[in-house]
Amino acid sequence: MQVSSLNEVKIYSLSAGRSLPEWLSDRKKRALQKKDVDIRRRIELIQDFEMPTVSTKIKVSRDGQYIMAVGTYKPRVRCFDTYQLSQKFERCLDSEVVTFEILSDDYSKIVFLQCGRFVEFHSQHGHYYRTRIPKFGRDFSYHYPSCDLYFVGASSEVYRLNLEQGRFLNSLQTEASESNVCDINPVHFLFAMGTAEGKVECWDPRTRNRVGLLDCALSSVTADTEIEGLPSISALKFDGALNMAVGTSTGQVLLYDLRSSNPLIVKDHHYGLPIKSIQIQHQLDLIISADSRIIKMWNKDTGKIFTSMEPEHDINDVCLYPNSGMLMTANEAPKMNIYYIPVLGPAPKWCSFLDNLTEELEENPESTVYDDYKFVTRKDLENLGLAHLIGSSLLRAYMHGFFMDIRLYHKAKMMANPFAYEEYRREKIRQKIEETRAQRVQLKKLPKVNKELALKLIEEEGEEQQISKKRKQKNLPSLLKDDRFKVMFENPDFQVDEQSEEFRLLNPLVSKISEKRKRKLKILEELEAQGQEEEEEPEGKASDAESSESSDDEKGWVEEVRKQRKLLRQEEKLKRQERLKEDQQTLLKPQFFEIKEGEEFRSFKDSAKKQKLMKKTLEDRLKLEEKLGTLNVSDTTVGSKQATFKLKKSEQQRKQQEAEKRHRQERKSLRRSASHLKSRRGRGRLFH
């Protein structure tokens, strides 16, 4: 049971508490209830007081014994018996229910207005009759003296269906284009309807004439409210014979006296959401108004907030159990919420034990209860070393991860990193010590990282401050105090590497200045070690001395640059010698290379040549091909250039061409020899 308090009004949420996962079997749920004391002690006021997906409307019968709720999916109605604290029956419907009304004292006569323009009547045994209205309906009310049903919806007409005669009567013609809600006064049976234009029309059912018109849209706009569009009427409720509460689509509730066209009170929810439900609590003169996010209870005379509730899920409907402090809500979740507020009234007769429970809870407040399952992803399992449990009964797949027992999770985490708590504790102690040190009066000290750079910046800031004082300019912010460059003087990864080549080549240019800074750093470190204050810097020398020093520095800089270059060359030679020694010591192993199809291996030099050619630029390759004769570049008459290529032939093609040449030469020689023999034979015949 969850307890909340606002304005010293305690609200007990009877449906909140420890809920078991839906994927657990009934057998496991029963086993958990036997083992776990917290689950066994949870309050389940009405057994299975829920819908499969969403509940849209909830009402209580006039005798107070039955609670009826409609929801989805599939569209259905469920009836709960309060005397048995369980479900009485469940009936599935053909289409979703917009709203419904209990005509009898019990559940024997019910009317459902459905989405597809259908009006369905149910009796005690089940479905009784079904009819249709001409336009889509949004709300209806029952007029008891004449047994008429008044339907309002996406039409300017109000349809009347007489249940005694079993036929439609002449409809009421209104000025509105559409109507959203309607209600009938329980005292003098005045019929009122709220329109999409933000007006309320009141009709007398006896004469079937309009007797009044209220412009609520204009009255809801005040100096404090911000409205984007035209407010329409979304909720309507009569309070006695003379009062009426109206809710708008922009989140305002207006309380009217029927004898006046001006509202008595305008209450804004400040959420900009349409008012879903309005209930009247007569014992304390409270109005309970609800939008999809919050339920507010406020005094109808002063408008002062009594208390409010913000459920976890969006609200669709609110029902106040008569003559008690119990409140029920239908919301965008399977579970329907039940709240008990002792200040509003006593508990109903069928759950009178709630008064004793609340008294005990006030004496002994309940501790917070946590779930026994931990949701982990596949990456978390790999970090914990539990990836091998995927597919076992210890892990239950859910969405993009798994559910596992919280005790197993803690054990695995301790085994994966047993010193995590010690490290966390040390870090917290270190942070506390640093916080206490920061509260003391501290001297200006140089940072731990990049001390020379910080000293350089401090000197430059001092020079800039002197210049700005002379020129009367504003001082620029320092880099040491700037949060963007804070990490540069704290993180050792940003330390300037003085052994790098870039620094060593640039260092001679600032060698004299760096030497001076190093001296200052040594002095500052000595002062810090001794705990003494820093001494003031000595005054500068004269300008002629500085000019002589600058000329000496220029000569020294050149010499230092030469020295640094010589040192770098010597280091490179040493590195080369070390590499050669390593190469000589290493033993070469034979390597095997794969030759592509159609190529003939000659030597490694050919492959080396190919690699050299591939490394060369396109211009160098073209020049080589021109020398070899495979490429010819010439100028055209237009002014552009023309390039002709000769494709290189592979080894197989060359062999084929050589074989063809030999074959041709052999055939030519054979032909010549044959022609020579023929000519000799002819000559011999002539001689004979």
Automatic annotation (TrEMBL):
Compositionally biased region (Polar residues): 632-643
Gene Ontology CC annotations of this record: 90S preribosome; small-subunit processome
Keyword Coiled coil: yes
Region described as Disordered: spans on this chain: 528-557, 632-688
Domain Nucleolar protein 10-like N-terminal: 1-364
Gene3D superfamilies reported in the protein's UniProt record: YVTN repeat-like/Quinoprotein amine dehydrogenase
Bias (Basic residues): 664-688
Regions of compositional bias (Basic and acidic residues) in chain numbering: 648-663
Entry-linked SUPFAM superfamilies: WD40 repeat-like
Keywords for this protein: Coiled coil, Nucleus, Repeat, WD repeat
Pfam families according to UniProt: Beta-prop_NOL10_N (PF23098), NOL10_2nd (PF23097), NUC153 (PF08159)
UniProt subcellular location: Nucleus, Nucleolus
Primary residence: nucleus
Ranges of residues in domain NUC153: 482-508
Keyword Metal-binding: no
Biased composition, class Acidic residues, residue ranges: 528-538
Domain Nucleolar protein 10-like second: 369-417
GO BP, sorted A to Z: maturation of SSU-rRNA from tricistronic rRNA transcript (SSU-rRNA, 5.8S rRNA, LSU-rRNA)
Family that this chain belongs to: Belongs to the WD repeat NOL10/ENP2 family.
Record protein name field: Nucleolar protein 10
Native organism: Rhipidura dahli
